[in-house]
Write a structure and sequence with these properties.
Layout (H helix, E strand, L loop, with lengths): L14 E3 L3 E3 L2 E3 L2 E3 L15 H4 L1 H15 L4 H14 L3 H13 L4 H6 L12 H14 L1 H4 L3 H10 L2 H23 L11
């Protein structure tokens, strides 16, 4: 999930506005997650995370931006797509597959991300190592991060790159949880 900010504001994502005012990257007023309805006052059972916890939201946006620094944009999207598959986050999956297409990613590769182990020839060894690490970190409760998976990633990324890859995996997992917890609806990317 990519967010845009400036020093004073943060973009809300995945919401439709009801009687709201939009100024630049900030939406103010009543916000209703798309497809969830709401009462006459524009309130729903789910919060607008950016509005409810703006300082936390801005910190997460900053963490996300710092994580991707120095990484190949195509790799960034592959990692975000794979974690979103695993977390069943349609909102983020829609967003990042669209971002990948805009960045020039092929439809063939996008279709193969979910089954990359069976379609390794679509991905470089470095991308495969990043996808394996993404799976291990995303499913960390299942088996931890196996030594062989970590060692393969460390063989393809220097320490600084590996730190950024890990940070990116952590941020997309957090964004997935934000989107799922607040009932974001696929196709409602409001970064634009």
């Amino acid at each position: 999930m990519v967010m845009t900010t400036n020093t004073n504001t943060a973009a809300t994502t995945g919401t439709t506005t009801t009687g709201a005012t939009t100024t630049g990257a900030v939406t103010t007023g009543a916000v209703t997650p798309a497809g969830t309805g709401g009462d006459a006052g524009g309130r729903t059972g789910r919060i607008d995370f950016a509005k409810a916890a703006p300082k936390v939201f801005r910190a997460l946006v900053g963490f996300d931006a710092a994580a991707r620094e120095g990484l190949d944009p195509a790799l960034v999207e592959l990692i975000q797509i794979r974690a979103s598959h695993l977390n069943h986050c349609a909102y983020c999956l829609h967003m990042h597959t669209n971002d990948a297409r805009k960045a020039g990613e092929s439809e063939d590769r996008l279709h193969m991300v979910a089954v990359w182990r069976e379609a390794r020839h679509f991905f470089t060894p470095k991308e495969q190592a990043a996808l394996a690490l993404t799976e291990a970190v995303t499913r960390v409760a299942d088996a931890g991060v196996p030594d062989d998976v970590y060692a393969e990633a460390a063989a393809h990324f220097d320490d600084a790159e590996l730190g950024h890859v890990l940070a990116l995996i952590l941020t997309i997992n957090t964004w997935n949880r934000v989107a799922l917890s607040t009932a974001k609806r696929a196709g409602t990317d409001e970064r634009r």
